[in-house]
Amino acid sequence: MPSTLTNPLALIAELTHRCPLHCVYCSNPLELQSRAEELSTETWSRVFQEASEVGVLQADFTGGEPLARTDILDLVRAARSAGLYVNLITSGLPLDEPKLAALVEAGLDHFQLSFQGAREEIANEISGTRSHEQKLRVLQWLRQHRVAVTLNFVIHRRNIDQLEEMLAIAESSCATRVEFANVQYYGWAFANREHLLPTREQLDQSLALITHEQKRLEGKIRVEYVVPDYYAKYPKPCMGGWARKLMLITPSGEALPCHAAKVIPGLVFENVKDRSVRQIWEHSVAFEKFRGEDWMQEPCKTCDRREQDFGGCRCQALLLTGDAAATDPVCSLAPQRPKVDAILAGINAAPPAQLFVQPPWLYRPNPT
Amino acid sequence: MVPDTNSKPRLAPGCRLGENNQQRVLLMPERALRLLGPSLEIIERCDGQHTIQQIIADLQKIYSKAEPQKVEQDILGYLALLQKERALDFEP
Questions:
Q1: How many domains does chain B have?
Q2: Considering only CB atoms, which chain A residues are within 8 Å of B11?
Q3: Which end of chain A is more exposed for a tag (fewer CB within 10 A), N or C?
Q4: Considering chain A, what is the average pLDDT of its residues?
């Protein structure tokens, strides 16, 4: 076993790619998997058991819309009885009050409700469907249940000016945590990037507001803010480092080191139908590829920050430079940073009349 | 924010004890805290039954060789940290 090998701590279970929403920044790949390809209840149950045995603490049930799985209650029970902490990341759409009660009864620990905005109009525009009202209903039901509640707001140019209203929704709910995550540019978001990136002025205003609100709400609501890394000085430690902390399983059972890894050409992914979680974690060539530091180029190779950010994001390096082993170009030390600066300059120089009208979105379809 | 020492801390919804590699951990949204010695003894008493004063008295007994003042400060500091993480509710 190589010395760089650590235990995985979380398993991201993409239970399905089916989803009633069509969000323009969906983190699923452009090529969506169909219902016929999805893993069975039994295979998922085995995967949860194996994950727990290699040290995984938390299972993140996501999708698509995880509630689209008709066996969702069995999956929650299976993960919980394997000893995992169960998170559900949901739009709240295919949900009614009895189903929520049954989920909590089955052992759900943490309910993460995604929001597309603070107002009906923008939320529905982004999700390509009427969804906002139902989320507000779900928030009311959640008051009756003993489960942790997080509100997940995905932030971008068209809603970054609504942060105060979003916080007001959170404060009037039973949420103990709010996540404002700026869009990360992969998959559908990469395709819609020109319409999603906020301006520098918007970003600066949002940062000032969040700092103030975090202080005001301390001890009541934990407020987390993920900035768009194109504006950052150093890259994010993507997934806590390639194959260091997390394993993602796609609906059909492929094991990936992150949501977007399939964009990297030449990587071969193992499937949990053929291999155990431990075998994959320890031996998958794709997991080994960017684990540790041996793969790094300059300036990462000799950089003091390489143990903090692990060279940033491999998929972003590929998408922006064509080389998955390059330093993440959002890093101010990266030779290819000018590419990111050019993208930002384009946005920040554009006239407002062009920036703040409803763009021609590319919506994510619902696979069959 | 300093909680009233007559209040009874209780783990917030979605926060519970778990185990990993024979180690007790506090599981909570997007986090897991490793619990060692005194931190485990504090968490086990965050059940909505013990007041903060009672938790302090209990641990001062268990750690009778330590300076009582220091034990109290450490407990209050740890509870404040957990409150910041939103892992505790304080019941009157």
A1: 1
A2: none
A3: N
A4: 96
In a domain, B20, yes or no: yes
Q: Which of the 8 DSSP states describes residue A161?
A: G
**CATH number of the domain within which B31 lies:** 1.10.10.1150
Task: Name chain B contacts of A146, Cβ cutoff 8 Å.
Answer: 13
Map residue B85 onto helix, strand or coil: coil
pLDDT reading at B59 higher than 90 = yes
pLDDT in tens, A73-120: 999 999 999 999 999 999 999 999 999 999 999 999 999 999 999 999
* Residue B3 covered by a domain: no
Find the distance separating the first CA and the last CA of chain A, reported in whole Å. 41
Assigned token pair, A154: 């995905």
Q: Tell whether B77 is covered by a domain.
A: yes
Give the nearest chain B residue to A177 (CA atoms).
B86
Distance CA A71, CA A80 (A): 14
Asked if B15's CB is within 8 angstroms of A222's CB, the reply is no
Q: Are A112 and A89 in contact (CB under 8 A)?
A: yes
| Global confidence as pTM | 0.96
At A183-221, the pLDDT tens digits run: 999 999 999 999 999 999 999 999 999 999 999 999 999
Q: Name, in order, each residue with C-beta under 8 angstroms of B2's C-beta and a sequence gap of 6 or more.
A: B76, B80
Whether this model's ipTM surpasses 0.90 comes out as yes
By C-alpha distance, which of A55, A97, A76 is closest to A13?
Answer: A76
Asked, for residue B2, whether it belongs to a domain, the answer is no
Residue B17: which domain range?
8-91
A110-115 and A85-90 strand pairing: parallel
